Amino acid sequence: MRVRKAVIPAAGMGRRFLPITRAIPKPMLPIVDRPALHYLVDEAKRSGIEQIAIIVGYGRQVIQTYFAGDPQVTLIDQPEPKGSGHAVFMARSFVGDEPFAVLLGDIVIDSDPPCTGQLIDAFQRHKSPVLAVETLKYELLSQHNAIEYQPIDENEVLIRHIVEKPQENVPSAVTAIGRYIFPPGIFPVLSKTRPGFDGEIQLTDAINTLLQRERGIGLFYKGKRFDIGDKRDYVMANLEFALKREQYSEDLWSALEKLANPVGE
Predict the structure, then answer these.
(1) b (16+ CB within 10 A) / e for 122-154
(2) Element containing residue 63 per DSSP (H, E)
(3) Rounded CA gap, 67 and 77, in Å?
(4) Pair 159, 136: CB distance under 8 Å
(5) CB within 8 A of 245, min separation 6: which ones?
(6) Separation of alpha carbons 227 and 146, rounded Å
(7) Smallest Cα–Cα separation from 117: which of 1, 3, 244, 241?
(8) Global pTM?
(9) Any idea where the Nucleotidyl transferase domain is (predicted)?
(10) Of 178, 172, 141, nearest to 159 (Cα)?
(11) Which secondary structure element, helix H or strand E, spans residue 248, and what is its range?
(12) Please, are residues 252 and 243 in contact by the beta-carbon 8 Å criterion?
């Protein structure tokens, strides 16, 4: 079955970016001249997605105003921020009985073809849940997740188990990065998933349960990821996307060269 729908959880409080996120939802922070959430919606559309549900919370009005008039975008309220798994579960009626994509709202990926499109292609080949994965330094995995896996080839792995923010006994340096293709069977699993890490309903816990029933594929996607909840990554995203704009690139390169080689040093 073709993947026509996508869900973008975007209801997080953005605590790492306080105080600005008191006024602007984290997914609406600008990258150059458009909000980060714009890049995710664009990625979904370029991947062939026809209908997009954005899960919203405290910043609903700002997001609604920005996407007003876009017939492909629907907003769904998440009354309380209960975790990524709960956010995806809020879209069960929207998705219905179809496979669907999930794009976590604080992850922007610069890639061509789009990351979600790469996952959809893998889903069509395997008819199984697919997660975008990459390799991280071990010291960073405690802030993310780590995957126990079996290699398939140089581009794909068979996922056995995912550990959320591991503090010890890290199974590997491979991590899931916020892009997924799920079958509709994830929703009954999410309905029974209890709060886990941080007292929230974690998408990772539901995936682990799903993996007991279906094989899961990890795809080493081609592209560059930016976590806009991380201030360093957010600055780098603005810089790299600006350098891609012809009207900014020359002046930016000149400024960077002067910063790297200040006069008198």
Answers:
(1) bbeebebbbbbbbebeeeebeebbbbebeeeee
(2) helix 60-66
(3) 15
(4) no
(5) 32
(6) 17
(7) 3
(8) 0.93
(9) 5-240
(10) 172
(11) helix 246-260
(12) yes
